[in-house]
Amino acid sequence: MLITAIEPRRKAMSALYLDGEFVMNLDARTLIENRFDVGVQITDEQLREIIRLSNERRAKDKALWLISYRDHSKKELVDKIKRTCDEQAAEKAVERMEELGLVNDEDYARRCAHSLIFTKRMSKKSAVFELVRRGIDRELASELVDEIEVDSCEQIRAVIEKKYKRISNEKTKRRAFAALQRLGYSFDDIRKVLEEYEEHEEYEEYTEVDSI
Questions:
Q1: Tens digit of each residue's pLDDT (9 = 90 or more) over 73-113
Q2: Which of 31, 55, 81, 87 is the most buried (most CB within 10 A)?
Q3: For the whole model, what pTM was predicted?
Q4: Beta bridge partner(s), residue 17
């Protein structure tokens, strides 16, 4: 097969033409480094090899870009990289990131667990579910979440204080109850805290009337 044209494309890619026909877009640096140029004859084996090398470079570049943006689990990285290259190249790139210490599921899961519980105010149960969804082993997720000391009722109070006013209002109460259940809190804990707020609001209304 004869390389009849190599044309620049976006994102450091080049279009490869063999015998006058477009074949595919490949990483431009990979083509240059392997001396793929117009007028060169190549075999099927050489074409397969250049495709493999191109995929691996693209996967590595994508991995570096993604982890520079934010932390990822290994599974998250592989899934995102697979959108632009094959799974084998994606897995190899992520393994390399792990070897370099740029990807560590345990560190990622520990930081993520704290964020889910103390920033997003998820229950421990929901935090484990979310970590598993992100590709963390269930046993590891459970172990790390169990290390966190947190009071469920205090968490519920924090959500109410931030998002809801006059919880004795029936519509507001239903909205709050549904939202807290979505965060994974138990029916009993939610009811207990909501009753505290209702009693407090009733007391405030009584004292206001009494002072008139």
A1: 999 999 999 988 889 999 999 999 999 999 999 999 999 99
A2: 81
A3: 0.75
A4: 5, 22
